[in-house]
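This part of the workshop introduces the protein records we will be handling. An example says more than a description, so a record of this kind follows:
>
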Amino acid sequence: MSVVNEYDVVVVGGGPAGSVAAIAAARSGATVLLVEQNGYLGGALTAAGVGPQMTYHAGDTQVVRGIPEEIVQRLCALGASPGHMADFVGYASSVTPFNPEGMKYVLESMALDAGVTLLYHTVFVDCEADSCEGGEIASLRLLSKKGFMRVQAKVVVDCSADADVATSAGVPSCYGRESDHLAQPMTMNLRVGNVDRDRLMDFVKSNRSDMLPSIPFDDLRIIPRSGIQGAYSIVKAARGAGELSIDRDMVLCFETNTLGEYIVNMSRIIHRSAVDPIDLTYAEVEGRRQAWEIYAFLKKHIPGFSESHIVSTGPNIGVRESRKIEGVYKLTADDLLSNTMFEDAIAMGGYPIDVHSPDGEETNHRFLKSGSWYSVPYRCLVTREVSNLIVAGRCVSATHEACAAIRVTPIVMAMGQAAGTAAAQAALNKEPANSLDTSALRAQLRADGVFLDEYPSEN
């Protein structure tokens, strides 16, 4: 099998992390190939109905900037996002609704403008037989309808979300939580249009005791978009009456860029593996069944939905968690809750620990100190086994609980920018990616607008 081409950097996976990684690497002067199985970029944002983005902020401090913020500004200029706003369910410091078609266009335009070579409708198969000798990936085998092809890269960035490249290269990983390897549930998001948002907001305000207490009830008319998290008693009654069969204890929905259109995040598929095609097939089918069941429940029981209609379900099931690599360092919940500031920090985050139960209906929360943030070290992105591999996205080295915080879009985008910048640095300077100069990396990230300020320690 002949080599199709050689690149400084090959990024596998064009989701939020991979798109930003490719843009960052190309802007840093590297030749970049971005391999994506779909015909567009964005991953779960554009293929699984995920939204809004949350959160770019920790209290009043914007802790995710750089390329992710540039994406938001371009979306706003297109009319494809109203920008950052207070979280209308009071869970996170901010939310950022967006139009998924706008997201596709913005990510693709930015990648092409940076000089990224896009390769759609192509999947990663494995590392070549001799790829990992000496702790280095020499080439990747890819598959398209045309057949197999082989590409070489000085540095490979695994943004597959499931650590596919790392696994093929022999890097150990942990699936799901450490105790039993069950992962957070998969969800088929449902987009519903023509919702009477005024009736919905009135319902939320008049049923405070049945809603998430953090909802800013008195400000719902001020915040540009709306949502609901709660109606616990109504869901419980519907489940008791046999109208709802899902393992979910509340209604959760978020208004999109389009007024009166809501993303409903309620379905749950548990005890299934996101890396098993049989389980994934079941999840897709069951997710759509649940979506229609949820829609019937909303129309009957939640004011504002009676005249609504289904716009879409996600083309793919949404996956919260699968494999997580065993990196040089494993990020923990204690690191996040204690606001640990690592010397090799390459990204900051302010999203709480948000564990959707792998085996039940609950969502377990562990919140940060108000207005505080945590850091993600570069060592979570690299492995001891492979010197020219960097990982970004939800599959970085983190515990089950820590992953439940850093898996969200703004943070994986921030990790993607760091991974792409590091990959270019390693490729162009002929440095091992797993032992490069992180002080130089951090300096470049700061120069590119990335927020790396430390959270002030309490004396």
About this structure: The chain has a mean pLDDT of 95. The CA atoms of residues 239 and 245 lie 6 Å apart. The chain has twelve helices and 20 strands. The longest strand covers residues 147-158.
